[in-house]
Amino acid sequence: MNIPLSRVYIDDAIKQRILAAVDSQNYILGKECDAFEKELAAHTGVKHCVLSSSWTAAVHLLLLALKIKPGDEILVPSHTAFPSIEPIIHVGAKPIFMDVDESYTMDVNQIEAHLTPRTVGIMPVHLYGHPADIVRVKAIAQKRGLFWIEDCAQAHGATWNGGKVGSHGTFGAFSFFPSKNLTVFGDGGCITTNDPAIADRIRMLRNHGRKDKYIHELVGFNLRFNEIQAAVGREQLKHLDDFNAKRRQAVAWYRERLRDFHPVKLPIVREGCEPVYHMFVVQVENREGLAKHLKEKGIGTGVHYPVPNHKQPAITALYSDIPKLPVTERIVDRILSLPIFPALKEEEVDRVCQEIKSFYS
Ligand SMILES: Cc1ncc(COP(=O)(O)O)c(C=O)c1O
């Protein structure tokens, strides 16, 4: 692809930090991890951050720390990456699949109708880097005594009413997978929170339940983080705000060129939100035809996600009460992710838009 869907940022400073971490001969949960946790907490605006080996691992540990039990229900949008729901099922709870609204995030107007005496929490997903309506989620959750976890895997640095995602919820969960806005050149994730007791419990659970070196207070796991990747993450974090600004600039170029072009529906931005465009997702007619045309022209695209989670075979095999989610089921046939990454140039956006226009003409 000469214009890929996304591109990871690599520079010499990061390579030097990797070598320094190698030379330190201290590889797991050392100084780099401590510093990365502190810097992530400060950047998000919370007191605690706990690293783990992925978002999925971090949320699994969080749900265990919260003592979620079989039969508990957690509200989650169906239109998200499949891993968003896996930890819920692994702890024996049930994901209650919700529809999305035109911002591609949880339709908060439908929350009340989905609450039951078994509901323990809500997990809005800031999909594609656009914040879900966390203010409404928070109001309902607080009234009902529920926890709420912000799935920030695609939204590092996005804000709602000026506050960063990951700081509004009782908990935030981030992924550092290579395509994410903040990466560590491999898998990684973390939980952000102001709750010291839960943060401590996750710290213990990720490291074999250790209280200290030889005392295991809990039966835990090995879902730790490592120094080399923490060093990479610390360097990437220095650039995150600038990278997000560059993503927004690239989207502004797309919007200028596609604003009045009717075969393409552009994503909306909710008032009070500052999205970070992990993905730039448009809706189009004849998606497969357009994707094929762009591929022939060397332009990468993606579909996030073609099969909603409530229709995945793993889910229909588990539950008999599969809901109907009209918005989700309509958009999954129309959404297309266009190239977006901080180094994307205006002339590249121009080429993508010209090729889109030439396909429909
Ligand atoms: C919205 C969302 N939630 C959760 C995850 C899971 O993250 P990880 O791969 O770090 O476990 C991802 C990554 O694909 C994601 O995009």
Structural commentary:
By secondary structure, the protein is an alpha/beta fold. The protein has two domains: 12-234, Aspartate Aminotransferase, domain 2 (3-Layer(aba) Sandwich); 239-360, Aspartate Aminotransferase, domain 1. It is 38% helix and 16% strand. The chain is built from twelve helices and 15 strands. The strands form four sheets. The protein has a seven-stranded mixed sheet with strand order 1-9-8-5-4-2-3, sandwiched between helices. It has a three-stranded antiparallel sheet with strand order 7-6-13, with no helix packed on it. Helix 1 runs antiparallel to helix 8, helix 2 (31-44) runs parallel beside helix 8 and helix 9 (287-296) packs across helix 12. The model has no long low-confidence stretch (mean pLDDT 97). Pyridoxal-5'-phosphate binds at residues 54-56, 80-81, 83-84, 125, 151, 153-154, 175, 177, 187, 189.
Could you give a short description of this structure?
The relative contact order is 0.17. The protein is α/β, with parallel strands linked by helices and 361 residues long.
Topology:
Elements: H1 12-24, H2 31-44, E1 48-52, H3 55-65, E2 73-77, H4 86-90, E3 94-98, H5 111-114, E4 119-122, H6 134-144, E5 147-151, E6 159-160, E7 163-164, E8 171-175, E9 189-193, H7 196-206, E10 210-212, E11 215-216, H8 227-258, E12 264-265, E13 273-274, E14 280-284, H9 287-296, H10 313-316, H11 326-331, E15 335-338, H12 346-360
Parallel strand pairs: 2-3, 2-4, 4-5, 5-8
Antiparallel strand pairs: 1-9, 6-7, 6-13, 8-9, 10-11, 12-14, 14-15
The structure holds pyridoxal-5'-phosphate.
